[in-house]
Amino acid sequence: MFRQPAFGIAISTLVLASGLMTTPIPSHSSTKQNTDNQSLSIPSNQVATSTASFQTTALEKSVFEQINRYRVSHKLPKLKLNANITRQARIHSQNMARGKAPFSHKGFEQRVAAIHLGYNSAAENLAFNQGYSNPANQAVIGWLESPGHLNNIKGNYNLTGIGVAANKQGEVYLTQIFLHSTK
Question: Which keywords does this chain's UniProt record carry (predicted)?
């Protein structure tokens, strides 16, 4: 969390990477739809007042439950949580939190290939935030307000995995991968 000394106002950051969607075609090439990275401003009453220690698995569960509640409220089927997808999402979030990977969708195709499931479409939502008492909730709010991320959330997918990682600076990285499994 950062503070503006003259006014003592808490400032926090939420950054969303563009929603990424990949649909394999018979020649094994893929098409991508990207929107520009977006920064969102959140009211200061939703900002943590101290550096929090986050339970990343609880945050993952929270994202999963919020996304499924949204889908059900819009008459879409619930997503099933998949351990292999979650593993790849966690690895990406951990790599971003440790500075081993940039905050981006770079390597998305490799993450999906490492899941070892037959699929006909896949997508990924990313979020980075700092200074919030509930970083999972802030990420979901940001995704729901972003057309590209919302398209992924509402997409024709049946499986998902969520990975969350935080570092010593209080930065929280969230990755959600969506798949439409053919099995």
Answer: Signal
d(CA 32, CA 19) in angstroms, rounded, equals 10
Q: Could you tell me if 176 and 92 are in contact, meaning their C-beta atoms sit under 8 angstroms apart?
A: no
CA distance 167 to 62: 19
- The tens digit of pLDDT for each residue in 54-105 reads 688 999 999 999 999 999 999 999 999 999 999 999 999 999 999 999 999 9
Query: What is the DSSP track for 40-57?
Result: E---GGGB-SSPPPP-HH
pLDDT above 60 (res 52): no
What is the distance between the alpha carbons of residues 144 and 154, in angstroms, rounded to a whole number?
10
Res. 171: pLDDT tops 50:
yes
Q: What is the pTM of this model?
A: 0.76
Residue reference for tokens 């992924």:
152
Q: Has residue 150 got a pLDDT over 50? A: yes
The torsion region of residue 8 among left (phi > 0), alpha (psi -120 to 50) and beta comes to left
Q: How far apart are CA 163 and CA 165, in angstroms?
A: 7
